[in-house]
Amino acid sequence: MEYDHGKGRKTHRTGKPVTIFAGIIVLAAVVSSAWLYNEYKLRKAVEAANEKNAAYTAGTPERIPTEEMNDRLKTAGMTVDENGNVGLEGLDMDRLINKVRSDGVLTGGGVPDIKCKKAEDGKLIYTVNGQETAERPQLFGEKELFYNGVHYKRNTAVKAWLFLGVDNKGSLQIDRDISEIGLSDGIFLVAENTAKNRVHIIQIPRDTMTVITVTDKNSDPVGTAVDHLTRAWMYGDNHEKSGKYAMDAVSGVLGGLKIDGYMAGSIDIINKLNNYVGGVEVTIEDDDLEAADPAFVKGATVLLKGDQAEKFVRRRDITVDFTAMTRMSRHRQYVMAFDHKITKLAKRDSDVIPGMFSLIEDNIVTNMKKGTYLKIAMDAVLSGEPLSDKDFSNLEGENLVNHEEEKDEFWPDYEQVDQLVLDTFFRQM
Q1: Where do transmembrane segments lie in this chain (predicted)?
Q2: CB 47 within 8 A of CB 41
């Protein structure tokens, strides 16, 4: 199967002070259509710009000779008369704008300018600073960017936290052989708005095909491969390395968005947490859940007790295609029902949330500080409004069956993913 969007390379280039200054001049000229610059004034402007901007540039600013600057402007389409004076007569404005954008000038001196369009065959075509690329740009880790002509800046109040449900039992704080580590079946990216004390949850399919880290027997990287996202955890060490590889892989799916931290929990926490809140009530919406438990009749409302919570969350028929995808709706249903239940308890007892984490601390691993994950939980539970469907988003894309390996594959629609990331973690300027 052809893989259209591999792991992109970071193409951010730092704007040179003189290029920024020249870009401002060119932009003003485009607006007024009445500028003429001779070599002498251009040279003086370059020198002045270098001196003025030296304080803002690490190291010694680069000084571009007048001749080279003239060549650049001529390449952009500006005219030069017989005396060497640079002018605008006969200038192709579109060509000029594209040129200075490709140099990172019109976008603020090095701010990436990304364009994305879908070809007739459905493949995405990306252009970064005027240069077409066959790979998906990994530029959403930038503080600022242009995307299809819209100016975005990273909303620093919105943090990105990765939560993983790993399909093995016991502690995640001990090393295990790669054959015993397990996969991350539940993948949730929590966007925490620290200013508004609210969370938004992005569900990411386990079978998402993306670039992941491949390791040796010591869980040290030996390369990368396009594989199922769920396997990124497996190539680690069951805790720290697994967490890092999972964060790297999810960041790749999201175009290079920085992940601020992660928490992973083993299977054991499902029933522990469910029993901790006295059971969670759900309505059975699937036809095939009776095979997991006789009480799971479609249409029935069930108060999940004992091991029923794990059955409800994890059950799927592996002989049927794409059941990992359809199971995600049950993940969402259970998270909302659990949130409603623990919200009621937390209003009566402020120790409920800290006690919840104390109960499962042996079955989780995280690189967050305790205060951080307690704050995330508080924002989800005590925001004044229970979680609902509007607090969740899914990735769109295409489900395919790899018949050679007998595995399901999910190939994201990165045009939708890009916009989801921008809408969630950035703000328009």
Answers
A1: 18-37
A2: no
> Cα–Cα distance between 228 and 207 in angstroms, integer?
5
Beta carbons within 10 angstroms of residue 7's beta carbon? 18
Q: Where are the domains of the chain?
A: 154-267+365-428
Bridge partners of residue 274, in order along the sequence = none
**How far, in Å, CA of 403 to CA of 426, rounded?**
39
Tokens at 213, concatenated: 């880290």
pLDDT band at 386 (very low <50, low <70, confident <90, very high): confident
Q: How do strand 113-118 and strand 86-87 relate by DSSP bridges?
A: unpaired
Contact 221, 189 (CB under 8 A): no
* Three-state DSSP class for residue 222: strand
Residues 6+ apart with CB under 8 A from 107: 101, 113, 129, 145, 146
Q: What is the C-alpha to C-alpha distance for residues 162 and 259, in angstroms, rounded to an integer?
A: 7
Contact 76, 96 (CB under 8 A): yes
Distance of CA 396 to the CA centre of its chain: 14
Handedness of CA 15, 17, 19, 22 (dihedral sign): positive
Q: Report the length, in residues, of the chain.
A: 429
End-to-end CA distance of the chain: 39
State the DSSP code for 305.
-
CA distance 302 to 282: 6
Task: Provide the whole-model pTM.
Answer: 0.75
Where does residue 148 fall: left (phi above 0), alpha (psi -120 to 50 degrees), or beta otherwise?
left
What is the Rg, in whole angstroms, of the alpha carbon atoms belonging to the chain? 27
Which CATH code of 1.25.40.10, 1.20.1560.10, 3.90.1150.10, 3.30.420.590 fits the domain covering 154-267+365-428? Answer: 3.30.420.590
Mean pLDDT estimate for the chain: 83
* Closest-CA residue to 149 (of 112, 99, 96, 113): 113
Please report the pLDDT score of residue 102 as a whole number.
Answer: 43
| Distance (Å, whole) CA 375 – CA 379 | 6
Q: Which amino acid is at 315?
A: R
